[in-house]
């Protein structure tokens, strides 16, 4: 079928994850005729095999923790146990519900959903190959590539679905492993480590970098490590898996670290060593689209080097976060529509969250990065141990750390570890977006008793005005 015969649209989106489906909906809201091409599941990896189902599993682990501690709250319970199949089924049900919700939203906005693999076939043309090899073509002056990413695979750590798990197998285990080796201490690896450790698995975490959660502020990462080790995790940083062999009972891993090599036995391994962008098989050959380390190079409006072609989300590079993809989708589509008030996305305004126990959340510069940039700093710290709500919750461990420019009072970064901090970090995100200084934050009234008061006190502490430490 020629480009002239292809079904015509104003915008075609390739990929139905949190970037793609949001781009399609926003474009439809702006009056565009939109087609969305998705080869597997609407909602993408995040909704079906990532962000959402893992949070459902972690909620089960959280309930288990509370149930085990019930007597300390004056609540008498019976025997507390783990029903792993029920946890997994609940997690899958949550994903199915939300996938159906996305499908309903696309239908509501009259977005045409095309099931199949989409690739650029000619300028302004996307070829769609459905199951069975059925091929069709779509045409539009604007094409947004939102194909996402897949787990990175290291030689020797190729998932086999049995001994070495990818995130999919880790989310749908048939049985609880007695022992588990998690390779990679980023957010994904640590969340799985936290889940399985809470359920009772013996968990060892290996990380090549010098800290767990390597992208986080080092002070916060250090506190996180202490908390994880207090829960019984064994953590090896500055360590790699030098060799790994599989047998009928599990795996034998040779770990290479600062003190030499050691051998470890584990029943299962979870490989969580990052992601690889789905930039292959998109028809980019022969176009002006450029790749850098597998990611599509884009400008401030998510435009590529090829006229009319855009890239968003994981495909366009780090940070690899669903909310970053969704925000880029809106920026990209509104720019295409000619909105005058749209602004490029600043990476420093994108919050990062880890939903382990304890939770970790951050936005902006780490202390290390701010000092590398030569900034003179004021740093505030406030422990949840001095927060009334945290004590009442029985969750007094943790810290709120705020980083300000000494001269201007600009909020450069905020780093939190403790109870529900993933629900608190947006407050600092809003402040940064509004370019608030310490003055506005100090004069904001925070309700009492709340965890958010620790945010206020951390700001006060940075300027020598803390009231409760």
How is this structure best described in words?
With 469 residues, this protein is α/β, with parallel strands linked by helices. It folds into 3 domains: 7-151 and 276-336, FAD/NAD(P)-binding domain, CATH 3.50.50.60; 164-273, FAD/NAD(P)-binding domain; 358-462, Enolase-like, domain 1 (2-Layer Sandwich), CATH 3.30.390. The protein has helices spanning 20-29, 44-49, 51-68, 84-108, 167-171, 187-199, 218-230, 322-336, 367-372, 388-393, 425-433, 438-442, 453-462; strands at residues 7-8, 11-14, 34-38, 112-115, 117-122, 125-129, 135-139, 142-145, 149-151, 164-165, 179-183, 202-206, 234-236, 240-247, 250-257, 260-266, 268-271, 275-277, 291-292, 295-296, 309-311, 352-354, 359-364, 377-383, 399-405, 411-418. The strands form 7 sheets. It has a 5-stranded parallel sheet, with helices on one face. A 5-stranded parallel sheet has the order 10-17-11-12-13. α1 packs parallel to α8, α3 packs antiparallel against α4 and α3 packs parallel to α6 (187-199). The longest helix has 25 residues, at 84-108. It is globular. The model has no long low-confidence stretch (mean pLDDT 96).
């Amino acid at each position: 079928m020629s480009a002239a015969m292809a079904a015509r649209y104003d915008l075609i989106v390739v990929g139905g994850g949190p970037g793609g489906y949001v781009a399609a909906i926003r474009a439809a809201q702006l009056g565009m005729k939109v087609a969305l091409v998705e080869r597997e599941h609407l909602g993408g990896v995040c909704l079906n095999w990532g962000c959402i189902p893992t949070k459902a599993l972690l909620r089960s682990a959280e309930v288990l923790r509370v149930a085990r501690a019930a007597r300390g709250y004056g609540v008498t319970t019976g025997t507390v146990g783990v029903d792993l199949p029920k946890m997994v089924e609940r997690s899958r049900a949550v994903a199915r519900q939300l996938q159906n919700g996305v499908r309903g939203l696309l239908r509501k906005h009259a977005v045409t959903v095309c099931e199949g693999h989409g690739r650029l076939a000619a300028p302004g043309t996307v070829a769609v190959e459905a199951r069975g090899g059925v091929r069709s073509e779509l045409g539009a002056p604007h094409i947004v590539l939102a194909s996402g990413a897949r787990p990175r695979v290291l030689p020797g750590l190729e998932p086999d679905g049995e001994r070495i798990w990818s995130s999919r197998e880790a989310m749908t285990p048939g049985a609880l492993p007695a022992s588990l080796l998690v390779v990679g201490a980023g957010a994904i690896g640590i969340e799985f480590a936290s889940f399985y450790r809470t359920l009772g698995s013996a968990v060892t975490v290996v990380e090549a970098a010098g800290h767990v959660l390597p992208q986080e502020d080092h002070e916060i990462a250090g506190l996180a490590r202490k908390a994880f080790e207090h829960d019984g995790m064994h953590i090896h940083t500055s360590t790699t898996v030098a060799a790994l062999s599989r047998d009928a009972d599990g795996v034998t891993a040779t770990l290479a670290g600062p003190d030499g090599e050691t051998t470890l036995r584990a029943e299962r391994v979870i490989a969580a060593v990052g992601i690889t962008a789905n930039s292959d098989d998109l028809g980019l050959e022969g176009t002006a689209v450029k790749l850098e380390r597998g990611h599509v190079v884009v400008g401030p409006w998510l435009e590529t080097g090829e006229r009319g072609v855009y890239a968003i989300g994981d495909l366009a590079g780090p940070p690899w976060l669903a909310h970053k993809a969704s925000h880029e989708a809106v920026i990209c589509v509104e720019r295409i529509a000619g909105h005058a008030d749209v602004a490029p996305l600043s990476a420093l305004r994108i919050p990062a969250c880890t939903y382990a126990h304890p939770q970790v959340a951050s936005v902006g510069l780490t202390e290390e990065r701010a000092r590398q940039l030569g900034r003179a700093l004021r740093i505030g710290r406030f422990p949840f141990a001095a927060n009334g709500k945290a004590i009442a919750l029985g969750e007094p461990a943790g810290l709120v750390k705020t980083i300000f420019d000494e001269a201007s009072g600009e909020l450069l970064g905020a780093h939190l570890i403790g109870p529900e901090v993933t629900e608190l970090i947006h407050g600092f995100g809003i402040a940064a977006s509004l370019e608030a200084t310490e003055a506005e934050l100090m004069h904001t009234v925070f309700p009492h008793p709340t965890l958010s008061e620790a945010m206020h006190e951390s700001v006060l502490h940075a300027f020598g005005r803390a009231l409760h430490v």
